[in-house]
Design brief:
With 385 residues, this protein is of the alpha/beta class. It has helices spanning 2-15, 19-22, 38-55, 75-87, 100-113, 142-154, 168-183, 202-211, 225-234, 279-291, 299-317, 324-331, and strands at 24-31, 58-59, 62-70, 93-96, 117-119, 134-135, 159-165, 187-194, 215-219, 243-247, 267-270, 335-338, 341-345, 352-364, 367-379.
Length: 385
Amino acid sequence: MIRRSLLAATLAIPFALPASAQETAKIGLILPMTGQSQSTGKQIDAAVKLYIAQHGDTVAGKKIEILLRDDAGVADTTKRLAQELIVRDKVIAIAGFGLTPLAMATAPLATQAKVPMIVMAAATSIITAQSPFIVRPAQVLPQPAAAMAQWAAANGIKSAVTLVTDYGPGLDAEKWFNSRFKDGGGEVIASLRVPLANPDFAPFLQRAADAKPQALFAFVPSGQGAALAKQFAERGLDKSGIKLIATGDVTDDDQLNGMGDVVLGVVNAGPYSAAHPSDTNKKFVATFKAANPGMRPNFMAVFGYDGMHLIYQALTKTNGNTDGTAMVEAMKGLSWESPRGPAMIDPATRDIVHNLYIRKVERVDGELYNVEFATIPMMKDPAKP
Ligand code: PHB
């Protein structure tokens, strides 16, 4: 036995694989690449590829390999894919999660397997509390909702109707818009909730028009903003004097340029605009566009890009130790310069702390952009004081 293993060891030397090939670190990336939320999947996938192209595929002696899986936005599928990636493929982290229900379904697996779970899109506040292995470079919906309400109340808007998609992030948006708007002296006169799947906004927009508020505050998940804008115009709300205000999910850079004049002047709050005027962002946008002709990066792309940054930074800090607990510890408190501006992982909640920008949709060089004009610096999740 001893002689055989010695012989094997001796023989093995000339045929040894390069060290990098022996030390592959696999990352499971689970995204909705098809279905209603496919723009989120495509944006994040493109940004993850860009990050690796720019930073190399080896970090702290580990060769990074991305295993991309399509969950089509179906929670049972997300969970099954995560299970396979953890058990069969032995991934060192799972990442992605395009919608809240997908992240909620998968969180218990991260806890059981002690595998870091990097949430790159899902934005309901409670998600990070579902597992100590979750770290979220994405936004948290109470942030843009609270920021929008504060701005509206401080800028002469006294009455509003809210229109949100009827699930986690929409309910967060409704709650935080309502409470901050009230604090500022405003009144929400009706709260409307639209189904997540295949929404028809028309009847809700009619009710909003009938209530005659000064403003309509809207949240819909990334990918549905264009449909909302179209129906807003078709119902004539743009001519009714009701001001559309929103979270940046509605005036999403992925779709914004196709929305047309109806969204010109719409004030909204969000953590990222492709028009953010920093050098870091200019380089990000230019390289993203060069690698993905016809696409403009949106906030989801930035959350995916930053999620990769967290994984690379964690592996660097642990000297390549892929233990899940060590990696999550290494991510806590990390701060960096993101294309969105300064960003940090709150060590207490593992949620993002970043700037919230108040923006107005304007035409710049012939294209529609969210142009930032005010900043609430380094905002934590207001739901976790
Ligand atoms: C979510 O499901 O948490 C979600 C998805 C898309 C968004 C925001 C939140 O734009």
